[in-house]
Please model this.
Amino acid sequence: MQKYIDQINNAKTLDEIDSIRIELMGKRGVLTEQLKNLSALPESERKSAGSELNKLRDQITTTLDEKRATLEHAAIMAGLEPQKIDVTLPASTSNTNGKLHPLTHSMMEATTIMSSLGFKLCHGPDIEDDFHNFTALNTPLHHPARDMQDTFFLDADHMMRTQTSAIQIRAMEQLGTPIRVFGLGRNYRREIDATHTPMFHQMEGLHIGTNITMADMIGTIKTFIEKYFDLSDVPMRIRPSYFPFTEPSVEVDIRWDKKSGVLGSGNDWLEIAGAGMVHPNVLRSVNVDSDKFQGYAFGFGWDRMTMLKYGIPDIRNFFRGDIRWLNHYGFDISSTPSLIEGLDD
Model:
């Protein structure tokens, strides 16, 4: 039977495998006939001969199956070979060093401005626990604001971060008060359309101290907007709103021309930020004396801020990896935002 094992191992096609299987294990196959003839053997020999034939049959079956799987895989790969696409970029013949993604560039701009206003950049994990993402932000279990965020939960206590406000909680835990920080990073919610994606970015500022008022908050937001969009004395409107972690809460609008998209002038209002005085419950959650300290927090949807500044119409293109789009909207890799030289040079 060794010659059949060798034939199987040397087979080049599936038809050869089928021919060997039929020759050995078909209705009139060599192995089939030997199994049928067992009954003609003396009883003393029948058991051992049957055991040997069964082992041989199992060995041949295994060898046939393994060789068949090998040949089928080879046939699939041979079929895929003509369809293979090289997804790598060709070697560049120019001196270009690539482009900075507009989000990367605008985050550098935000960092430049916030640092100039005395805010320290802080970071936090993308995977957050319930306390930092919800509870400490005055959003306890079963609070309706949780449902609005369509959260990606990993287990009962951990989820993909839904808001950069969680960075503020961690910053107060680590740095204490008084504090003036900002967070800039990714967040995750289950939504997607021309203005929303499951992953998006936010920038939030936090200023806690003594004698901090809403006037300080409005002045900071106005200064940031004017520096970022390169506007002078932009008209702003403050509207009452609601956020669980601020009280009172407001929405901030700026003037714009809806038809032309020009910011800072026109007859229309554009919502640009959410803000408010930090709720005493938030301060107490991180052991800050809310009778002594108070302050404000504000936040921008950073993908949207980038779209507004650079005329990008669809947020989904940020994450599609189209090199043609990046070449159009991207920035020279050597450019560094500067308040002196201009943020969008």
Remarks:
- The first helix runs from residue 2 to 10.
- Residues 260 and 266 are 9 Å apart (CA to CA).
- The chain has a mean pLDDT of 88.
